[in-house]
Structure formats: structure tokens, C-alpha cells
Amino acid sequence: MFIPSLLCSLQIFLIITFISQTTAVVVYTNNYHYACDQSNNKANYTTNSTYHKNLNTLLTTLTSNTDINYGFYNFSFGENNDRVYSIGLCRGDLLPNDCRRCLSGSRTNLTSICPNQREAVFWSENERCMLRYSDRLILGVMEDAPYFSSNNLDDSVDVSLSDEVVTTLLNNLTSRAVKGDSRIKYAVGSLPGPQYEVIYGLVQCTPDLSENDCNSCLAENLQQIPSCCKGKIGGRVVRPSCNMRFETSSLFYEPRASPPLPPPSPLSPPPNTTGKSNNSNTIGIAVAVPVAIVALVFIFLCIYFRKRKSQKKFEEIQKEDEDDKIEISESLQFDFNTICNATNDFFVSNKLGEGGFGVVYKLSNGQEIAVKRLSRDSGQGDSEFKNEVLLVARLQHRNLVRLLGFCLEGRERLLIYEFVLNKSLDYFIFDQAKRGQLYWEMRYKIILGIARGILYLHEDSRLRIIHRDLKASNILLDEEMNPKIADFGMARLFGEDQTQENTNKIVGTYGYMAPEYVMHGQFSVKSDVFSFGILILEIVSGIKNSGVRDGENTEYLSSFAWRNWKEGMATNIIDPALNNDSRNEIMRCIHIGLLCVQENVASRPTMNSVVVMLNSHSITLPMPLEPAFHMDVRNLQDIKSRGHSSAQESINEISNTELYPR
């Protein structure tokens, strides 16, 4: 059946750590951790008892309290043996509404997975929030058990240096966090690691602890780091009273070295003035011509065999792809009736959103999985649908949306995706109120995540993949506001040595399409680079690329950014909601965005270079050239007259997808 098979693929049950001094077992399941106290000397409460009612009242009060906006909740309710104490703590960067939503979900989970226990603790995914309750006083008491630790399985490029940087970083953050007040004890930061690694750290205590207790708790965590996470690129140690974590990028590339310039040619000898015979010139020509012919033949043979070898390899990969297609089709395909039952016959209460492709639903049992049902007049044909299924199913990257299944039956076409909580980037960045929630560090994380996702498509998957429809509405944001690239219906595969392809059907979204694609149907990895450059400028400015209005005049964002940059007024591009946050880093991102939208295809950087630029502020950026000024929609007739199909049809019917939430 559909639901069990999906649930089996998503649920993991794993005991992380057993704490010998208690009977609590920290359990990991569905991306969260919990521990229920099962001590023999502590009686459980009974259903509908006074303690049970007090617990429900207390947790309801805690998760619905809107007066607290700093992420720390502590309440108690009841009397004598039936008194319940609780603590709720959200990670320091969580907004109040997100914090309460996280605690509310934790409350629902904790009371169901720890039924009748008088003491329990719950950590949500990535420790976004922690919820505890007990029948004893827990406020102001340092609790170092139960705890759990975990690590990223990948090793650092330089183990000893990485460990040294991690220790230094976490020590520094601890010193900052313990100085916090009764509202928050939290610190984040980063240090350069080995080579191009950047190591990020986070430490936090419950703010009810004294400075000494907070320091002691974090010191215990730091002592645990070598045994759990030595030499790894990420790790964490989490206790009820404090948590500590470090992470680093796993997609780092050094800039490719440019080939050395050839040595200068020797100067030509002076003309012969000695009166010698011209026979030497004749002999020279007689020798040079055959040598040149042999050299040319050799070059042609090399090109031929290299092309033949590349073609053979490409055919082998294609054969493997055909085998993969069969396997993917068999493992991910579901019949329509099964999905229909799972969504309660696509009942309206299960509807999550609607866009150009169709309607998105969740499962009737509340499981957070998006079932995207394409409308019959969506314009996406079977070929585009199968293309998206086969491509996305084989892509595995944290910045790409994950496909769980599909259905192609009669006229019904459905895609089952992972549920992505925070809708899409355009929902935030172009909204006057919501974009204020995106402070610069979050926007920078989104920019870098998109870059890493595109880099994976261009260079790290078996075949080079060109997305062709990168835009703000196709960038989904998960619970942690990590970006995930979506909608691969327009994507195309490139061979290993292929750099460019032509098409007569222009598909995509105006403003994001590169000029060589709009005008001549030519697309390449640099087409995606252009779209990414537009995304950077939109994220920095909070302005749609469709137009910046100045009185009665409307100017495209790329030309607006270029003009202000050239006139030394680049601060005009920056979203006022960012205030003065990280001004140098913002200006660097504008610079990178302008490099990506240059009209000359060869001048645009590769995504490899872009990721390096974003991660290393020591690299000097080249000066950007004039960007491409986009086609106006009124010029569609010019495109048609060049022999291309109408791009507008593809835009309206295929690529404008806004599915909220997904």
C-alpha cells in the first residue's frame, strides 16, 4: 500500500545513547530525539488523573503564550504531588511564531510517545526547540543527562587542524554564551578551517542556569566532542540544559588553476643580407610543409579518437540510464486509486496550495508529504513529466527537492514530494512584511545553498544537468530555511564533454532567461549561471526582476543594479530591511550577481568559481562588464520571426509554479 511504503521509507528508529546513571534512553526517530523516564522508583500517572490534567493545562499554556518573544518558557501548575514543572527552549535564531509552532509540535509528539511518564524530554529536528516536563523542580537546575551525540560521517581534509579550529571556536562561543542574561544564553560564529573549509559553531544553554552552571554544562559537551566527532566535518552533543554543535561545508572546491601561458616565440632572425642563395628558403619550405601536414593529420586523429571515446562513454552511460529508468519506474510508481485513498479523495481540507502545474495535497493521516496533482490543461506533457520523475529521482543533494513517488495513469499525473514547510523564496522575499524576517545571514545561507545545488547539477552528478527554469518560486525553503531547488520538468541532460545545445522551443520565465537563450535558443551551464545572478540581485534587493519603477519609467533589476554600481551608489540596491548588516558581504554578493548576468557568455563565471567566491573573501573579484538587458514581453513577435516557438506559451502553461506550502 502507498502509505505504509512511504512511512517505512521515512521512519527510522535508532537508540543513540544509553545513559547508565538513569533509565532514560535517548531515541531517534523521524528526525527528532526524545527520552522518557522509566525509573522504577517513580510511579507513572494514570490517564485522566489530576497530574494528567495539570500536565495538559500546563503544556497548552506554554505553547500558546504570545507574551514571550525570546524563546524561553518556564511554567508550573498544580499542587503538592500533582504539581507539574515544564521548560521550553527554542534555538536562538528562531522567530517567536516558529518557536511556538515547534514547541506545539513537540508537545503533541512527547505526550504520545511518552504516555503516562511523569518526566520526559523532547528535542525537535536539529534542536530547533527542546521541551521538558517533570514532577520535580527543574528550573535553575543543571541537567547533564540524558544526553546524545552524533557526527557527520565525512572526515575533514585536515583532521588535526580541523579539531584545533573546532575546539577554539566552541571555546570562544562558550565564553560568549555564558554571559547571556535570563532571556537567552546563545552564541553562533565561524572560523576558517583547513584549506577552503569554513567551520560554523553554535552553543546554547537554558537561560535559567547561572553563568557557572552554563559553563560547566558546555564544558562537559566540549569534552565529549573528541570521542564522538574527532576529525569529522560536523558533530553535536546535546543535553537537557545545553547543546553544542559544529558544521562545515561538504561541497568545497578550489579554483581551477589556469594553464600556464606558452613561452614567447623566439624573434625572427634578421633578413638575409649576405647575398646567399634563396635555396635555403626553398629547402625550409620543402621541409615545413610535409611536417605541417603530418601534424595536422595527427591532430585530426587525436580529435577523432577522443570524440569516439567520449561518444562510447556517453552511450554506456545512456545504457546505464535506461536500466535506471526501468528500476526507478518500478520502485516509485503507484496506482491512482492508492494515492486517491491516501489523500481522502483529494479532499479540500488536505489541499496545501495551487499553482501553474496543479494542486498540492497532504496525506489524509496528516503525514507531511506533498502530493502534486497536475491539472489536465497544465501544458506539461508526458515527456516533461517523465523527465522530471527520472531526473529528480536520481538526484540526491540537500539543496534539491526529494521525489518520493509518482503516478502516471490515464490522464492523471501525480508527483509525491517531500514536504517543504516554508513555501518558496518568492513568498518571503517579495512580500513587504515577510522579507523583514530574512535577516542577512539567512539570505546569505539561501544564496550559498542555491549555488551548491546548481553546482551539483552542473558538475557532480553523472551527467551535466541544465535546470533552465531557476527562479524565486522554484526555490523552496525547508524548516531550517535551507533552499531546495524544485521543478525539473524543463531540465536537460548534457554529455560529459558537451558545453552547449540549441533548441527551437524556448521555455522558462522572462527576466531569468539568458539573452542567448531567448534570442537564439542556445543554452548551457552559463544559462543557469545567468538565472542565479538574477536570484542573487533579487535576494539582496527584495525587488522582482520584472521591473524597478522610477516615476513613470520602469527599469529591469539587472540594469538598475549595474547603473548604481557603476555610479558608485550600489547601496541603493540593498533592501532597506537589512539595515547595516554585513555591508561588505552584501556588496560582494552584488558584485558576484553582476558577474553572473554579464551579456558575454564567456565572461560569466562557472558555478564552481561562484561557490569559491562566496566562501572566500580573500579572492579578488574581476570587474563585471555590462549586463544583458532583457527582452520585453512586447517583443515576442521578434522572437517568433526568428523561427522559435512562442516562449510565452511555455511560461504561462508550464513554468510558473507557486505551490504553497510544499
TrEMBL record:
Ranges where the record places region Disordered: 254-277, 640-662
Entry membrane topology: Single-pass membrane protein
Upper lineage: Eukaryota, Viridiplantae, Streptophyta, Embryophyta, Tracheophyta
Domain Gnk2-homologous: 33-138, 144-251
Protein name according to UniProt: Cysteine-rich receptor-kinase-like protein
Chain intervals with Pro residues compositional bias: 257-272
Gene Ontology CC terms: plasma membrane
Domain Protein kinase intervals: 346-620
